[in-house]
Amino acid sequence: MDLKGKTVIVTGSSRGIGEAIAEAYAKRGANIVLNARKPIAEEKVAHLESYGVTVKTLLGDVSDFETAKEIVSQAKELFGSVDVLVNNAGITRDKLIMRMDEEDFDATYQVNLKGTFNMIRHALPLMLKQRAGSIINISSVVGETGNTGQANYAASKAGIIGLTKSVAREAATRGITCNAIAPGFIETEMTDVLSEKIQEQMLTQIPLKRFGKAEEVANTAVFLSENSYITGQTISVNGGMYM
Ligand code: NAD
Q: Where is the Ketoreductase domain (predicted)?
């Protein structure tokens, strides 16, 4: 897909990987719908607009079905189409399973997996009518490998891979692609909270011997949207951590 003038919704784009994804699409000339639960700094919006594109912020919790519907329908009203959906909003509630509360499991599932479903459920009918569209879901390397202390998160991210493949099969006849990206350890505020000891341990598992950058995930999303013959795939951006 040629991204110039297209409409791209990026959930959870107030910071980190989502912010970098929004910028990568803006650089290609796409108009951007930013989303997060809390207000997004005006400088960030202005920075994206400096690429000569239109940027709108639609705040709201993607884990709520009706809110997701509202985000998609407002995006369509503002821009006339929804061409790319990047489901990036995600949370962690790390604990060993023996100490994990029901709430830790439910909250992670609700945002990461249900939120992704909610947005696809509302955006896909528009894409089917357009006979074009690109859906990118942000999974994680731990959805492929599992991880101690992340049973809830890993389950939600593995679920995203199954969801991605199913949507890819259902939407393919109308020229719509759906892919997942499984980042490894990417330097963001989500990973800054991990102790130095854990960060050092992680480095020993990464053949490329460094953490990834948000831009490296963002460029992969753009690549997938631009390639109309790749669908149902999970692309690892993990420095070789899992092959
Ligand atoms: P982050 O915590 O820095 O940013 C998360 C964003 O999601 C924020 O903008 C937040 O406001 C938003 N968000 C959270 N819950 C939301 C909700 N219910 N509705 C709408 N927005 C919501 O995280 P990040 O490190 O930038 O990660 C982005 C995505 O990449 C997540 O899905 C995460 O699981 C995934 N990921 C990150 C890493 C990493 O190493 N950082 C690795 C693998 C996967």
A: 6-184
